[in-house]
Write a structure and sequence with these properties.
- Helix content is 46%, strand content 3%.
- With 127 residues, it is mainly alpha-helical.
- It has a domain of 82 residues: 434 Repressor (Amino-terminal Domain) (Orthogonal Bundle), CATH 1.10.260.
- Strands 1-2 form a two-stranded antiparallel ribbon.
- The protein is elongated.
- The two termini are 29 Å apart.
């Protein structure tokens, strides 16, 4: 059984002796999963669809929408930043990926994936 400590449980006397700086390169599938999760996240804040403006017409009125800024603030993000990260960045800092996953309620990279990648990296560096 693996015991994982939370940040509150982790006791450190002085600076950590080893720091890992990590950036994640998203593949197309991960990127699309984040895009879909962001669309779904934003849709929960969409106004109700209003009936057509004229009887018998198929014309409807739809107001542009996005999630209120406060929904992003806890994670230090904004709607624009999330869209930019998902769509245009070559790589994203691990801490930002974790924030995106928490905000959007989706997992694109797991602890198991990270452990495997770190082990492969250490094998490569230390060989």
């Amino acid at each position: 059984m693996t015991v994982t400590k939370t940040k509150k449980q982790l006791k450190v006397d002085g600076p950590l002796s080893v720091l890992y700086s990590c950036r994640i390169r998203l593949d197309d599938e991960q990127r699309e999963k984040l895009r879909e999760a962001h669309r779904t996240f934003r849709q929960q804040f969409a106004p109700e669809v209003k009936p057509s403006v004229m009887a018998g017409s198929t014309v409807t009125v739809q107001t542009a929408f996005s999630a209120p800024p406060s929904t992003y603030q806890e994670f230090g993000l904004s709607d624009l930043v999330v869209s930019d990260l998902i769509g245009t960045r070559d790589s994203i800092a691990l801490t930002t990926i974790v924030s995106l996953q928490k905000l959007l309620g989706v997992e694109i990279i797991s602890r198991k994936d990270l452990n495997e990648k770190f082990e492969n990296y250490l094998d490569f560096i230390l060989s």
